[in-house]
């Protein structure tokens, strides 16, 4: 099993002037510690599950470019890009740029978006959920076309591209991995089976629910003739060493591995102290690598 790091908050001592240096220390430590990936959120306001809306929040792809220059081996992505925030052609170009400049380490994490307050606050159109899922599927088709040898038009219900020219192409072959976040059985997991290289589920729902979601995904794969094992199964969880020990995380990962999860991505309380990263490096990552 692999371990990833999510950084959802930048509310650290020292204020705005310290965000850059502190983030650099965090990501360089994680890169050297053996983390497989680093993920940010795609939000412009802080989400209420983490803190007040007016807490500091960095734009995701700009920040990933900064992280790319500071690291050597970790994969980089947003968990996950909201479909409403960027035109699909521009999104494909953005991820291509990140992949080229990082030496082939970009992942396109993507989802249907959900934070209506944020969209309304910044004047971003926020269509109904059904429409957002239609836009998500068209975007998946567009990025795959732009990451191919086909330079031609794309005509969808929502998006119309006259020329899907994209140079330079990504270094990742056949293209940067596509991860779809969410657990909806009828739409999200079907899109994973049809278009994605990875899924991301929520660890807090428990292993019984996760196992059921993976079974649904496997059924979708069988329906369309896709090899289920070609899809990386990931989860997102939280590590709080004020309430748990390294052994608790190891046990959690063991259980996740037993149901077929291949990468556990954690956000961490007090990450700015670096201590949680050291615990992962010294105790957790070596242990779960055996699962």
Classification by helices and strands: alpha/beta
CATH class: Alpha Beta
End-to-end span in angstroms? 6 Å
Largest sheet: 9 strands, parallel
**CATH fold node name:** TIM Barrel
Helix content: 40-55%
What is the topology, as strand order, of the major beta sheet? 3-2-1-11-10-9-8-5-4
Write down the Rg: 19 Å
Condensed summary:
The chain has 291 residues and is an alpha/beta fold. The chain contains nine helices and eleven strands.
Defining traits:
291 residues; 11 strands; alpha/beta; TIM Barrel; globular; two-stranded antiparallel ribbon; nine-stranded parallel beta sheet
SSE arrangement:
Layout: E1 2-7, H1 16-33, E2 37-40, H2 60-70, E3 75-78, E4 81-82, H3 88-101, E5 108-111, H4 116-122, H5 129-146, E6 154-155, E7 160-161, E8 178-181, H6 188-195, E9 198-202, H7 207-224, E10 232-239, H8 246-258, E11 263-268, H9 275-288
Parallel strand pairs: 1-2, 1-11, 2-3, 4-5, 5-8, 8-9, 9-10, 10-11
Antiparallel strand pairs: 6-7
Helix pairs in contact: 1-9, 2-3, 3-5, 6-7, 8-9
């Amino acid at each position: 099993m692999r371990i990833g790091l999510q950084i959802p908050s930048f509310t650290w001592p020292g204020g705005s002037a310290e965000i850059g240096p502190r983030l650099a220390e965090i990501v360089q430590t994680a890169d050297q510690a053996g983390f497989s990936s680093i993920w940010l959120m795609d939000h412009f306001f802080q989400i209420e599950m983490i803190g007040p809306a007016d807490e500091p929040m960095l734009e995701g792809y700009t920040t990933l470019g900064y992280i790319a220059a500071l690291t050597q081996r970790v994969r980089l992505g947003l968990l996950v890009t909201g479909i409403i925030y960027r035109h699909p052609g521009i999104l494909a170009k953005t991820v291509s740029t990140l992949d080229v400049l990082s030496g082939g380490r970009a992942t396109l994490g993507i989802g249907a978006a959900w934070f209506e307050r944020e969209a309304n606050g910044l004047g971003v159109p926020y269509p109904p959920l059904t429409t957002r899922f239609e836009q998500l599927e068209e975007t998946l088709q567009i990025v795959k076309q732009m990451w191919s040898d086909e330079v031609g038009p794309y005509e969808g219900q929502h998006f119309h591209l006259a020329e899907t020219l994209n140079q330079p192409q990504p270094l990742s072959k056949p293209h940067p991995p596509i991860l779809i976040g969410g657990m909806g059985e009828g739409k999200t997991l079907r899109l994973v089976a049809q278009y994605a290289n990875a899924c991301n589920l929520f660890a807090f729902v428990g292993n019984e629910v996760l196992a059921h979601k993976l079974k649904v995904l496997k059924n979708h794969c069988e329906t369309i003739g896709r090899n289920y094992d070609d899809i990386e199964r990931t989860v997102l969880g939280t590590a709080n060493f004020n309430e748990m020990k390294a052994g608790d995380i190891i046990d959690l990962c063991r259980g996740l591995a037993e149901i077929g999860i291949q990468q556990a991505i954690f956000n961490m309380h007090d990450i700015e102290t670096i201590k949680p990263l050291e615990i992962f490096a010294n105790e957790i990552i070596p242990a779960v690598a055996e699962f």
